[in-house]
Amino acid sequence: MVLTVIGLFLLVQLWFFAWVLVWKVAEPGPTQFMKIRLAELQKKTPDAKLQQTWVSYGLISANLKRALIAAEDSKFMQHHGFDFEGIQKAFEKNEKRGRIAAGGSTITQQLAKNLFLWPEKSLIRKGEEALITLMIEATWSKRRILEVYMNEIEWGTGIFGAEAAARHYFGISASALSEYQAAMLASMVPSPQYYDRKGETEGLTRQTEVILERMNKVAIPPAR
């Protein structure tokens, strides 16, 4: 029985790793998270569709790259998938508040979850997320990680990826995003559906200003 369980576990990990290798060079297409969101939308509107247009790394504004790293993972270029200092700070904040107020997840961890897993928090999901994070960091460049992340991230109700977000909110391409527009999009990442409904709230404006101040202090992967 134990050997069967171990064998099944290893087969699942091989399946994940095979897709990680494929998506190192190929466009992932609809992620697991996108499929979950689409199913939710289609319960209310059967013919609902997601908005997403894949664009290459070089066709996304450097402003958005800096804003996302500043907002989500300031040590993205230095770590190997896990920001242990960030995890410790998140743990202390959660302990102080008595609830989960911060996650400490890196961009790679978020990408691993979005590509393969489900949004609900559990020890099983976090464990699998960690394994997939190691697979991605071992085989992908930082440029590729950020490219896929920017194309697959949720930015509103049915809105996925930088190109769809830029056109939805500002009527421009992802390559044309200004510093302020990029900082605003990065500010929306923790609650994209909320800000899609509410628009530019006072809290969103404050967070946008914070990210603007941080943007020029972070490094981003080169275009080539």
Largest sheet: 2 strands, antiparallel
Mean pLDDT: 91
What string gives the helices and strands in order? HHHHHHHEEHHHH
CATH architecture: Orthogonal Bundle
Shape: globular
Unreliable stretches? none
| Percent of residues in beta strands | under 5%
What strand line-up does the widest sheet have? 1-2
Distance between the termini: 49 Å
Residue share in helix: 55-70%
Structural class: mainly alpha
Structure characterization notes:
Its main location: membrane. This protein has helices spanning 2-22, 32-44, 62-72, 84-97, 107-116, 123-139, 142-152, 162-170, 179-188, 192-198, 202-214, and strands spanning 154-156, 159-160. The chain is mainly α and 224 residues long. The protein has one domain (31-217): Penicillin binding protein transpeptidase fold, CATH 1.10.3810. Strands 1-2 form a two-stranded antiparallel ribbon. Strand 1 and strand 2 (159-160) form a beta hairpin. The longest helix is centred in the N-terminal third of the chain and has 21 residues, at 2-22. It is globular and about 55 Å long. The N and C termini lie far apart (49 Å).
